[in-house]
């Protein structure tokens, strides 16, 4: 293992056991996140990107269970497999919020409405750092200033509803970075925001990351955000990573038919296509009843009968770091 | 302006009162739409972009009188006769509304979960006494086919459909009365990218087939550029720029349009770091800044911008229309997108 790896996920499977059947939300996912780098995860709703993040922090919703796999978190003083920890135990609580922090999509629901943002940030600081309340308040004000909230010494006593969406998201980022995490998981951090505010928040995350040397796992459905932020990208479809690699490889040399189609189907600003967009036929299949073989085969333009519907394609490394799971590139 | 104008909006205003206390005393106003004018030609798509709170949805709803505008004129051309929608009484409005329909953003909340697809799509036909019984069923089947749904599913309830399919049900309902104008309010924002492309294609196909005119409201500049013939940009209740799509994207004349175009994350890593950031937040429509509403965020603002609101003027060359509301519209050289 290289020295630069911070988090390694091996063959992770997270299933939901519901009355209607078993939903294989994450089904055999492998990836590595390097120190200080941004790892982007992109996919449509239901592909398992958020569940992957929740598996790492062990904050899965009820009935969700990690049935297999390892999530190895490398620290200076040795590594720990997060899957083996008790989700309610002290050990994961020390990691959660301190070494691995999370920023959620909807800042209005992720922040408690009856406490001031200062209270909430101070709580996080007191939990993980050995400081007094007064010191924690000073740190909180300093953090709010760092994330670009004007007049932090006043805003520290504001309630979430008194702040705009962008400001709330900044407050949540302040809370997340309060204990200098080595990994920040950002789940659709800008989806609820307007474009000009989105640009500000992405810029903020990028700058904080540079300053603090933390790694980011950025989950989004927006290819534009990925292109802007990520060093490495994983494209997910129905619980699997279908393609992964360095950002330039994914955008300029996409191999998996799903990635190719996804990139073609976005209307790009400044590149007006006359007439119709190239769209992906059909829709995401029912999660209780997944297609056999390659899960993309019913919608795939390059589908080969007798191959794609029979077996799951193996992951093939095309160039260094660029991996794709598709029979077009071998493994038949 | 030619004779083929289908809809003309003149000085439209919609102010919402801010009420306070037990007696609901009026303490202020939110100027959601503040004196805007534009027109839409027959068969064209006018895109309306802006950030949240800019008044795009209010504009769309005010045109259909789904909310009562405060002031202004909305002229609708029905076979050569201009009708001012704001002067119609209830009965006349019902007659006129057949020609204008709406498609909503959220395909989950805009369909009644207790009605079957047949009831949903057939309701406008029934209400207007256009069809009933077998005839209604045939028409619903026809509409479902037109939007790519299988007519066998007519007796199902909305929960049995995916988001993209629900949006198609909403589109079929809007088409039921053969409207001339459809106000599409963020019709693809709630959909996944792959479904979004299918829905946009469908809207374009239907436009060609039924000669529809769209007012297409969206915050997504990529989508608006793709589908629109002309684009209007709104900021805090005002239109700041209107031009042909290509012209507006390549050659924006308002600093806000420039900033908006620059802020969109492009799905191409080579655009990294080229972005100019706009500081500050969208102005508050209940308490807008003095002068030009954009001046506190504008990198080019001068003294006059703090004092006077710039009027919307045409600076297009060679007979092309390019309306901008900026004191320095003809002096600034702004960056578009190549």
TrEMBL record, chain A:
<keyword id="KW-0547">Nucleotide-binding</keyword>
<dbReference type="Pfam" id="PF00005">
    <property type="entry name" value="ABC_tran"/>
</dbReference>
<dbReference type="InterPro" id="IPR050388">
    <property type="entry name" value="ABC_Ni/Peptide_Import"/>
</dbReference>
<keyword id="KW-1003">Cell membrane</keyword>
<dbReference type="InterPro" id="IPR003593">
    <property type="entry name" value="AAA+_ATPase"/>
</dbReference>
<dbReference type="Pfam" id="PF08352">
    <property type="entry name" value="oligo_HPY"/>
</dbReference>
<dbReference type="GO" id="GO:0015833">
    <property type="term" value="P:peptide transport"/>
</dbReference>
<dbReference type="GO" id="GO:0016887">
    <property type="term" value="F:ATP hydrolysis activity"/>
</dbReference>
<feature type="domain" description="ABC transporter">
    <location>
        <begin position="7"/>
        <end position="263"/>
    </location>
</feature>
<keyword id="KW-0067">ATP-binding</keyword>
<keyword id="KW-0472">Membrane</keyword>
<dbReference type="InterPro" id="IPR017871">
    <property type="entry name" value="ABC_transporter-like_CS"/>
</dbReference>
<keyword id="KW-1278">Translocase</keyword>
<comment type="similarity">
    <text>Belongs to the ABC transporter superfamily.</text>
</comment>
<keyword id="KW-0997">Cell inner membrane</keyword>
<dbReference type="InterPro" id="IPR013563">
    <property type="entry name" value="Oligopep_ABC_C"/>
</dbReference>
<keyword id="KW-0813">Transport</keyword>
<dbReference type="InterPro" id="IPR027417">
    <property type="entry name" value="P-loop_NTPase"/>
</dbReference>
<protein>
    <submittedName>
        <fullName>Peptide/nickel transport system ATP-binding protein</fullName>
    </submittedName>
</protein>
<dbReference type="GO" id="GO:0005886">
    <property type="term" value="C:plasma membrane"/>
</dbReference>
<dbReference type="GO" id="GO:0005524">
    <property type="term" value="F:ATP binding"/>
</dbReference>
<dbReference type="InterPro" id="IPR003439">
    <property type="entry name" value="ABC_transporter-like_ATP-bd"/>
</dbReference>
């Amino acid at each position: 293992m290289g020295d630069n790896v911070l988090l390694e996920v091996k063959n992770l499977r997270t299933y939901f056991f519901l009355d209607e059947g078993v939903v294989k939300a994450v089904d055999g996912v492998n990836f590595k996140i390097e120190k200080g780098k941004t790892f982007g995860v992109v996919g449509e709703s239901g592909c398992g990107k958020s569940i992957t993040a929740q598996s790492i922090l062990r904050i899965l919703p009820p009935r969700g269970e990690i049935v297999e796999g390892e999530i190895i978190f490398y620290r200076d003083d040795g590594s720990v497999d997060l899957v083996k920890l008790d989700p309610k135990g002290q050990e994961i609580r020390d990691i959660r919020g301190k070494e691995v922090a999370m920023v959620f999509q909807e800042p209005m629901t992720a922040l408690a409405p009856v406490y001031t943002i200062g209270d909430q940030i101070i709580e996080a600081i007191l939990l993980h750092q050995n400081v007094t309340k007064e010191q924690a308040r000073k740190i909180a004000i300093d953090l709010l200033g760092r994330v670009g909230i004007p007049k932090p010494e006043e805003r520290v006593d504001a309630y979430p509803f008194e702040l705009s969406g962008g400001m709330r998201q900044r407050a949540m980022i302040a809370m997340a970075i309060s204990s200098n995490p080595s990994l920040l998981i950002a789940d659709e951090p800008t989806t609820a925001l307007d474009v000009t505010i989105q640009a500000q928040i992405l810029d903020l995350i990028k700058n904080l990351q540079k300053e603090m040397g933390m790694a980011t796992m950025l989950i989004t459905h927006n290819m534009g955000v990925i292109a802007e932020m990520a060093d490495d990208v994983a494209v997910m479809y129905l619980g699997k990573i279908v393609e992964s690699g360095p950002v330039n490889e994914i955008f300029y040399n996409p191999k998996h038919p799903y990635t190719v189609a996804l990139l073609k189907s976005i209307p790009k600003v400044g590149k007006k296509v006359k007439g119709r967009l190239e769209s992906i036929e059909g829709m995401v299949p029912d999660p209780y009843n997944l297609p056999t073989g390659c899960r993309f085969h019913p919608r795939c333009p390059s589908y080969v009968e007798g191959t794609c519907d029979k077996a799951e394609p193996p992951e093939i490394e095309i160039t260094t770091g660029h991996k794709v799971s598709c029979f077009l590139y071998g493994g038949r | 302006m030619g004779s083929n104008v289908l809809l003309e909006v003149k000085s439209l205003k919609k102010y919402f009162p801010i009420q306070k206390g037990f007696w609901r005393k009026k303490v202020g106003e939110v100027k959601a739409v503040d004196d805007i004018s534009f027109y839409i030609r027959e068969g064209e798509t006018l895109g309306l972009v802006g950030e949240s709170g800019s008044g795009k949805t209010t504009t769309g709803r005010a045109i259909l009188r789904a909310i009562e505008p405060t002031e202004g004129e909305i002229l609708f051309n029905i076979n050569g006769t201009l009708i001012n929608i704001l002067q119609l009484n209830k009965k006349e409005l019902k007659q006129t509304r057949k020609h204008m329909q709406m498609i909503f953003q959220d395909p989950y909340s805009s369909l009644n979960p207790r009605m079957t697809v047949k009831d949903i799509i057939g309701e406008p036909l029934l209400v207007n006494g256009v069809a009933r019984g077998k005839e209604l069923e045939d028409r619903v089947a026809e509409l479902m086919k037109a939007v790519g749904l299988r007519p066998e599913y007519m007796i199902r309830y909305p929960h049995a459909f995916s988001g993209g399919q629900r949006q198609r049900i909403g589109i079929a309902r809007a088409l039921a009365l053969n409207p001339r104008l459809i106000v599409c309010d963020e019709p693809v924002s709630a959909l996944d990218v792959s479904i979004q492309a299918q829905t946009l294609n469908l809207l374009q196909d239907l436009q060609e087939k039924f000669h529809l005119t769209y007012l297409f409201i969206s915050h997504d500049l990529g989508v608006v550029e793709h589908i629109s013939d002309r684009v209007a940009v709104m900021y805090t209740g005002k239109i700041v720029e209107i031009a042909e799509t290509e012209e507006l994207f390549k050659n924006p004349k308002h600093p806000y349009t420039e900033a908006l175009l620059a802020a969109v994350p492009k799905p191409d890593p080579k655009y990294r770091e080229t972005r100019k950031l706009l500081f500050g937040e969208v102005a508050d429509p209940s308490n807008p800044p003095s002068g030009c509403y954009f001046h506190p965020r504008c990198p080019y603002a001068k003294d006059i911008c703090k004092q006077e609101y710039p009027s919307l003027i045409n600076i297009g060359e060679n007979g092309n229309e390019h309306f901008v509301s900026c004191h320095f519209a003809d002096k600034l050289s702004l960056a578009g997108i190549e």
